[in-house]
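Thread: magnesium ion complex, take 2
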Amino acid sequence: VKREKPTIPYIFYTKDIHEEIESSMLFEAELKIAVQNEEFVVYYQPFIDLKTNTVVGMEALLRQIKHNGEMVLPNKFIGVLEQMNLIEKVGIMVIEKVCIQLRRWLDKGYKVVPISVNLSALQFKNPNLAKNIIEILEHYNIKPGYIILEITESTVMEDIGLAHFTLNELKDYGFCISIDDFGTGYASIGYLKKFMFNHLKIDISFIKEITKNNQDRAIVEAIISIAKSLHLTTIAEGIEDEEQLAVMSEMGCEIGQGFLWDKPISSTQIEEKYLKRNA
Ligand code: C2E
Ligand code: MG
Ligand code: MG
Ligand code: MG
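Output below.
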């Protein structure tokens, strides 16, 4: 009897793969040192009230600054930090950097707007998350009204019970909560009711072609309508031109964020461009 040779799945272990592994190990090693040395800065991108055309808030967006001055964007390192179990540490670092900045601006007598901070789903695995965040605010004497916390649908899906508990703790203390990148995750619309968010951020992917694509327009219209009924403020991410702005305003979206007004910029630039002293 002639037997078939069993086929064994294999891959070619080529020089390319070897180099890829080596460079990703190097990237992780460098990232670990960057976290130890806090080689990160927070950039800020304004939120604009579409009716009054004024800045009503801004989002804190993390950047890694390498020794040669090169800036690394979060899409390159947030996922890696999550895999390396470093996101909790970095997440707390971001809250602290934002509180230090707010304290400086308040001490200088500037009128400041609330700052929105992104939280990773993995941070919600820690039952002490709310307590840890609150401790930092108290240390810098910052009121929770100055901070908005942004979470994504995956945050509420990971461990619904614990997420619900932590979010209630945070809301009871006085934080506002935004649901970020809405429409791209797996959470059902019913979660909007269960979690009682304050703001809903419409994902950039629906805004990109909003002036040309009727389906995107229909989806965004439906999202805004649901948000209104549930008393959520709507924020459109990624508005880049006047045409997108016109469509979003006409649909009743309340707040915009995008390159039309500004890219994320440094705290110094924010101070020069937007902050005014109290009279
Ligand atoms: P996100 O929270 O959805 O933040 C909005 C992203 O959209 C930012 O990218 C911002 O620069 C970009 N954006 C804003 N307006 C426009 C526009 O008009 N056009 C285009 N093309 N893009 C626009 P960024 O800063 O690269 O951040 C990417 C993602 O990294 C964030 O998405 C967020 O998920 C994550 N991230 C950033 N900072 C942190 C952080 O401190 N902690 C955690 N856990 N995640 C963070
Ligand atoms: Mg965000
Ligand atoms: Mg977003
Ligand atoms: Mg996004």
